[in-house]
Structure formats: structure tokens, C-alpha cells
Amino acid sequence: MASPALPPLAELLSAAHVVSLPLTTRFRGIDTREAMVFRGPQGSTEFSPFVEYGDDESAAWLAAAIDFGWNAQPTPLRDRIRVNATVPAVDASRVPEVLALYDGCRTAKVKVAEASQVLADDVARVRAVRDALGPEGRIRIDANGGWNVDEAEHAIHALAEFDLEYVEQPCASIEELAELRERLHDWDIPIAADESMRKASDPLEVARAGAADLLVIKAQPLGGVHAALDIVRKAGLPVVVSSALDTSVGLSMGAWLAASVPELDYDCGLGTASLLAADVTARPVRAAGGFIQVERVELDAALLAQHAASAERDAWWRARLARCYEVLAAR
């Protein structure tokens, strides 16, 4: 029996479409992004945990999809969100090509610490971004927890000449972040926490430990707009709202979250539809003049059909949805 807060499983399954969208460049080790999108009573919504995530972690993403598609959302405090460009771990020569996908963005988040690369690759990539953005541009780097403390300290010193806005998840653990933050005390380079917050059993632990200067929050992994806003309120730290390589539907959820945060001092990582070579709507959520609009996205039937996942992958996602639904129903 479903919880009163959950729509019936059959209703979710009947509203669901599974798509496989090609990327413009390899990102997070993948060339296509699979996602499940729905038409709910409140509008389009999305369930798209990465395929390697287990059911317990993925259940939060399903809670977010249900919240955004079946529940009324907070009244937005702003109608557009300034966003950053996202530069994957590409060769430095490709940086201008990537940045050209993001109209009017003054900030770039640059992926570093790729397992198959070395620090010299990161330095070359970040230098290319600085050259493209000029001295007024803002650069933040994201290591996805790929360094230990010594490696992070060395790399950040090597990259500091490019005037970093902040460093996102340089190390994996909260303890490492706290130690690194202490080591960088005199460098005035803020530390942002992402995975060590959204993958933790207690998302507030990183704030209580004094291990970060700001938080990177994402609507889907944190259980939806309402749940993420509660974490923001309790954490008491500045935030950046970012995406998880969502379709434009998931990005609209992220935009709604960003529009509902009382104080939003940083450009947000919600321009990643530019990394998709295809989408599920005729009006993708892409940067225009450095901003995206806060609005619901309409699913396009033709695009859903064109990019429908194979029968095997469709069945895999529907089975995953059912398992995650049982996790939520048991809570």
C-alpha cells in the first residue's frame, strides 16, 4: 500500500518516459545520458540518478521527482538565474569550443583531477579558460573528491594564479576537507562541499564540522525543492545550486530551487543542457545572456519518441523505479 504522500506506483509508471540523450562531449565517463521523465499533475518532472547509484541513494531522486511533479512548489523569489559554464576534462585546445555553448556566462566551472590525466592537464585547461574569460571572468574548479589532502594542496597552489573563486569537493571525506581548509587558511580560497554533503547520511555534518565555506546543492539528490530548502536553512552557509547533468526538466527543478533560496550570491551550475546534444523539450533550458528562466518545461512527444531508450533499458528503469518506490514507501 502506498504512503498517502506518494501517488500510486501504477500512476508513475503510466506517466513515465525513458530517454537516452547523446552528449556533446564525454562527461563523467559517459557519452549518453539516460533519464526518466514524467507528466505529473503539477507539470513535467524527472527521475535520473546515475546508473551506478544504488536504490537507497536513488530513492531521494524519486522523492524529488514526485515532489516536483505532484506537489505545489514554493513561490519563486526571482524569475531568472545567472548560471555558469561547465568545462569537462577536455584538452585545453577545446576550451573555446565548450565555452561557446554558454551564451553570456561570466563564470566557468572547470573539471579537474580526472583519473586519466595529470596536474599539467588541469593547469593548461584552467589557463585556457582564464585566457578566454579574461581577468573579469570567474573560475571555480571541481575535483569530485579526486585528490588526497597533499595532492589537493599542491594542485590548488599550482592553480591559484588563475584567481579561483572556490574549489569544489577537492577531497572525498569531510575530515580531509576540514584539514585542507585549515591548510589553505591564509590563501583565501573557499572550499565548497558537494558529494560529502549530498551522499552523506547526514547532509548537515559537513557544515557542523566546519569543513566547507559553501555548499553545492542539487534538487534531485537531496529529495526535491522542499527538502533542499530545509537543508539550506539549517546549514546556514552560502549555497550554489547545481545540476546532475539533468535534462531540461530536471534543470527546471533546479532553477525553481535556486529561485526559492533567500540569498543567492553565486552563479549556479544549471546551464548544463548545453552539454546535451538532444533534449526532451523543444525549448531547452539553456543560458541566454548568462541567465536561465524559472519556468516549467513542456515535454515534446516527438522528441520523447525520437530519443526513447531501448526496450531493455526502458524495462531496467521501470524496475528501478519500482524498487526505489518501495524504499520510499517503507520510510
Q: How would you concisely characterize the structure shown here?
A:
The chain is an alpha/beta fold. The protein is 37% helix and 19% strand.
Explained architecture:
By secondary structure, the protein is an alpha/beta fold. A seven-stranded parallel sheet has the order 5-6-7-8-9-10-11. A three-stranded antiparallel sheet has the order 1-2-3, with helices on both faces. A two-stranded antiparallel sheet has the order 4-12. A hairpin with a 2-residue loop joins strand 2 and strand 3. 37% of the residues lie in helices and 19% in strands. The chain is globular and about 55 Å long. It folds into two domains: 95 residues, Enolase-like, N-terminal domain (Enolase-like, domain 1, 2-Layer Sandwich), CATH 3.30.390.10; 214 residues, TIM Barrel (Alpha-Beta Barrel), CATH 3.20.20. It contains twelve helices and twelve strands.
How would you summarize the topology of this molecule?
Layout: H1 9-15, E1 16-27, E2 30-40, E3 43-47, H2 55-70, E4 80-82, E5 85-87, H3 95-99, E6 107-111, H4 119-133, E7 138-142, H5 149-159, E8 164-168, H6 174-183, E9 191-193, H7 195-198, H8 205-208, E10 214-218, H9 225-235, E11 239-242, H10 248-260, E12 291-293, H11 301-306, H12 311-330
Parallel strand pairs: 5-6, 6-7, 7-8, 8-9, 9-10, 10-11
Antiparallel strand pairs: 1-2, 2-3, 4-12
**Overall residue-averaged pLDDT value:** 95
Strands of the widest sheet, in order across it, are 5-6-7-8-9-10-11
Shape: globular
**Count of β-strands:** 12
Q: What is the percentage of strand-forming residues?
A: 15-25%
- The separation of the N and C termini measures 13 Å
Question: Oligomerization state of this entry?
Answer: single chain
Rg, rounded, reads 19 Å
Poorly predicted segments: none
CATH secondary-structure class of the largest domain: Alpha Beta
Give the ordered list of helices and strands: HEEEHEEHEHEHEHEHHEHEHEHH
CATH topology of the largest domain: TIM Barrel
| Whole-number tally of structural domains | 2
Structural class: alpha/beta
Helix content: 25-40%
